Amino acid sequence: MSVVDIKRSSRKKKGKFKFRLDGESQIWTLPYLQHLDRKHLAKLRWAALQVVDKKGRQKKNISPHTVIKIAQLQREILECYCPGLYDSLSDEELKFLMEAWNEASSAKLGESSPSST
Hints:
The chain is mainly alpha-helical. The protein has a domain at 31-106. The protein contains four helices and two strands; from the N terminus they run E-E-H-H-H-H. It has a two-stranded antiparallel ribbon with strand order 1-2. Helix 1 (38-51) packs antiparallel against helix 2 (64-81). The chain starts with 15 loop residues before the first strand and ends in an 8-residue tail after the last helix.
């Protein structure tokens, strides 16, 4: 019988999005979106399908139920990686954080990882 060895990736080597709130010294970190755990990735994919059409444009009629589910997902992810942060943010700060995190994660998608050899 033949056995195939599957190389394990190390989550520790994955890059992180680092940020701090204006006027505070604490540095918070989030994994780039593509490095979230499978549960959160699956939920994010669902959320993306609800708000973006096949051409990548934002849908015009997003149901209130979907908006609530996406807000709950944002809270769930932030509480998982940055406990206590969600409740300390204003709506404007949360929006800015989500946009900056998404932008930083998108920039990393096109970059190649360092060679392991």
